[in-house]
Amino acid sequence: MTNHLKKLIKSVHTLTHLPIYVFNEQFQLKNLYISNRVCVLPYDFKAFCGGSNQALPFIFSGALEEVFISYSHPGIILIIGPFTTLQLTEDLIEERLHSYTSRSAVWPSLSSYLKHLPFFSLGDVRDFLIHLNYLFTGKADCPYSEELHFQVERNKILFDEKKLETYNWNVFQPEFYTYRYEEQLLALVREGDIRKLRESLASLNSSIIPASTKKPLRSEKNYTIIVLEKLAALAIQSGHDIVDIYQLRNYYMQLLEEKSQLIDVLYVRDCAIIHFTELLHHNVRRSYSPIIQSIIQHIELNLYTSIKVKDISEKFYISEPALFSRFKRETGFSVITYIHYRKVNESKLLLKSGLPPTEVAASLCYYDYSHFARTFKKFIGISPKEYQLNPNTLPARSVLDRYWPDKLE
User: Fold this and answer.
1) In this structure, are residues 78 and 9 in contact, taking their beta carbons and an 8 Å threshold?
2) How far apart are CA 307 and CA 216, in angstroms?
3) The CATH number of 290-403 is which of 2.60.40.3080, 1.10.10.60, 1.20.120.1730, 1.10.10.10?
4) Which of 102, 110, 101, 79 has the alpha carbon at shortest distance from 9?
5) Residues 97-115: pLDDT tens digits?
6) Strand 20-24 to strand 76-83: parallel, antiparallel, or no bridges (unpaired)?
7) From CA 331, how far away is CA 286, in angstroms rounded?
8) How many CB atoms lie within 10 A of CB 371?
9) Other C-beta atoms within 10 Å of 214: how many?
10) DSSP string of 335-355, one letter each residue
11) In terms of C-beta density within 10 A (0-12 exposed, 13-18 middle, 19 or more buried), how is residue 187 classed?
12) DSSP 28
């Protein structure tokens, strides 16, 4: 199934909020688009729709008289639903439950299932079929309209009642669904593959309704903040500079609060997801052990102190020779070189802010200004003062840029 086709199917799901089952021609389930708005029951669609060589019924009902639509396109079969063509009152729901099963233990769950069914008139269903046909074929017609009213009762699919006793009703609770969506999203970000992220977003269920507040805009902003916190935590766990990540997170939070339209909130959220995926792309290529990640984070948090290898060795219970050897093996250069590299990188920000070079040297705990100037020139190629006067004119990139190219931007 092409990415274009996935996007079309997802757009139908997003607009209607209806679950969509995607089968191949052998009736193997390839994808399921669901949200936290509509539950689904354990129907065996394959036995019902795939058990004969006859054409699929385009509309059929379930055991509780809820309605489903089937739509076939070369290579795929879509089952869309459930929904109802009647507005269900409490009495009607109770009648359906009693007529279907005497097992009172499952009535509350089935009642909730029926109460949350979307309502579409049969006329709406016809228009929906026309829209589907146009999306997939470019033809704005519906060959089924005349039989529409008869097909609902003619085709009825049943589910195994025994499955209801062990069915996981929590799967479609808002909290569980939101957790599942966030886990899928973070897994994509963790891989650091932008192309895969963009392709997978077409098939990733994303109909999340944030916890309600009086204002939808505030609800979406609150949920975006939660996503930003999780993205930041993931980046830090992957070995990124804690300060840099918090600054990046805060940048998106500030940008978020400036927005007054829902579409702009979504845009900020998507930008942040892509940005963090790009950051993690670099970490995919250098997978550090937990102790080296911790040492790197320790260095990042102590740039404004005097960092000594002996202190790191004692803090992490590793001998100095082992520290030198392991750090060099995993990162490609010595721990001392990395400490100087990060301090120099930090000094660039201070110099750009206008802080005098001598104060920069003191802030970063260099022995004296001459020591700082020599170290700075070794990495950058020019003196701190020259850099401060013209920070946009730099010599060729240093050897360490091969390992942290994003750090010197």
Assistant:
1) yes
2) 48
3) 1.10.10.60
4) 79
5) 888 888 888 888 889 888 8
6) antiparallel
7) 8
8) 11
9) 6
10) HHHHHHHHHHHHHHHHHHTT-
11) exposed
12) -
Cβ contacts of 345 within 8 Å, gap of 6 or more: 407, 408
As a whole number of angstroms, the distance between CA 233 and CA 237 comes to 6
Residue showing tokens 């102790």: 291
Tell me the pLDDT tens digit for each residue of 260-290.
876 678 778 888 888 888 877 665 445 678 8
Residue 18 and residue 134: Cα distance in Å, rounded?
18
- Locate the domains of the chain by residue range: 3-143, 174-282, 290-403
What's the pLDDT tens digit per position in 186-225?
A: 776 766 666 666 656 555 555 555 555 556 678 778 888 8
Look at residues 294, 302, 292, 298 and name the one whose alpha carbon lies nearest to residue 332: 292
| Residue-by-residue DSSP string for 84-123 | BSSPPPHHHHHHHHHHH---GGGHHHHHHHHHT--B--HH
Given a cut of 60, whether residue 167 has pLDDT beyond it is: no
Burial class for 71, CB neighbours closer than 10 Å (0-12, 13-18, 19+): buried
Q: What does the alpha-carbon distance between residue 85 and residue 81 come to, in Å, rounded to a whole number?
A: 11
